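Treating backbone geometry as a discrete language has practical consequences that deserve illustration. No coordinates are needed to read the tokens, only the vocabulary itself. For completeness, the protein is quoted in full, as a sequence line and a line of structure tokens:
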Amino acid sequence: MELASAHLHKGQVPWGGLLLTASLLASWSPPTTGQVTIEAMPPQVAEDNDVLLLVHNLTQRLASFAWFKENTISTNNEITRFVTATNETITGPAYSGREIIYRNGSLLIQRVTKNYMGVYILEMTDERYRRTEATVQFHVYPLLLKSNITSNNSNPVEGDDSVSLTCESYTDPDDITYLWSRNGESLSEGDRLKLSEGNRTLTLLNVTRNDTGPYVCETRNPVSVNRSDPFSLNIIYGPDTPIISPSDIYLHPGSNLNLSCHAASNPPAQYFWLINEKPHASSQELFIPNITTNNSGTYTCFVNNSVTGLNRTTVKNITVLEPLSKPTLKVTNTTVKELDSVTLTCVLNDIGANIRWLFNSQSLQLTERMTLSQNDSILRIDPIKREDAGEYQCEISNPVSVEISNSIKMDVLWEVTSEISQSTNPQPPTTIGLLLTTLLTRWMTSHTLS
């Protein structure tokens, strides 16, 4: 069967309107026996697009077939009719000029609007004037325009205000689905998130700075998807407690004091510096070159948010310390007898320095025989033992310098007692006092000779 269309207006059909028809009917073949069915292609149509009501299994022995709108067969609802015997197309009262009927019964409707949506009836009349019907339905939806997000509060304050964001779609809101996202993540109702008006409005309760966004509203209907431009909130907050950096609080004379203060705040905070509670500068940075001990004191960073009316402060104590001078180590006696006592004194000119005692270049491990006094500047060993012999030093330090004293070598003498018993010539006990180093030398010599 030829697939040419039969219509009025001298066969003038716009090429664009036939593109869908050409693609869907090109493979049409003579019908086979079976029930007539109609398929809307597509069943959901975007406004100003074409829809084809494609008929399947139409018999060749029909006298005529006609299309009706509004789910009722009546003269007023007739769109168009095709008479097989004369190969003639007749239009009815419901014909709009956008419909094209084909010999296989199919109907093409071009550039549909929402008024074309609904149920259509195909009435088929055979050669004996018996009538049968088939119906089809399609829906028409608008192509969604880009939506826009509006807010009921342009400058919400953190913790105090709530904000409602509305998705303005500029399209008939029927059959539109609204989806919200923030920072690319989908949003749903929660403790501080509420959706209303069919998800068209998103309400943020007690906003925080983390609610800034950006937000995107996505609109959907069966034929299109569109997204708004990103929308961010200008949330007013702060200032938070300021942080002063660097963390150093001890400096030495001649160095530069360079402090920086930062506090999270929107709008940005105003910064003020006070030194020893006296105003000094209105800036975020504080720089004092070539400082002296006179620059020791309290440094306060004061921050203020002019919109929230809140202010915060942080205080930092800065101490300028002179470098330490080398201490001197003194001892009552560098050679002592075992079980006697000895006192070592670390003489220093710097008040407040920390003192650490060294033994053979290692930190001295105090025993129950050792005591420290006068801020650890005096070390007393009582009684002293041979294992205490060695090199002693004291180390002094403050946060900016370290100094080590001269070293003192301590020698410990101990007594060796021997009893010589002979059966024929007994001898009285003899006590000999020797240096440890002398005893060791003799012992090594005797063993070498033997």
Remarks:
- The mean pLDDT is 85.
- The CA atoms of residues 271 and 303 lie 5 Å apart.
